Backbone:
């Protein structure tokens, strides 16, 4: 299985359960590992034959930037659904972190895997 990845994609959004969090934008960070067979793209050297990571990033930036979730868990699930359905990704590993959410830590968040590794 080949992996196309995006690391440390930072996006501003409304996220959190506290009243003050509902009034500001905070940064979340995404890491994605997405299963995709890259052999055809390597043969043709054509972007149409691969998973376009720029298109994935732009879609997630738009979605997350417009969202107002309470929980990172919900945001992570919705992002995984978008990537799997809109970009035909059979398996992904997604790490969504919220820097500065817990005093004394660099960040907190969730890591999820969805789909089947083939």
Residues:
């Amino acid at each position: 299985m080949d992996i196309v990845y995006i690391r440390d994609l930072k996006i501003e959004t409304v996220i959190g359960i506290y009243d003050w969090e509902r009034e500001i934008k905070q940064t979340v960070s995404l890491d994605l590992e997405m299963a995709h067979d890259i052999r055809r793209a390597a043969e043709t050297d054509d972007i149409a034959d691969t998973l376009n990571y720029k298109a994935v990033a732009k879609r997630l930036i738009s979605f997350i930037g417009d969202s107002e979730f309470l929980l990172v868990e919900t945001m992570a699930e919705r992002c995984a659904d978008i990537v799997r359905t809109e970009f035909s990704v059979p398996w992904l590993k997604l790490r969504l972190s919220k820097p500065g959410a817990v005093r004394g830590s660099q960040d907190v968040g969730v890591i999820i895997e969805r789909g089947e590794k083939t």
In short: The chain has a mean pLDDT of 95.
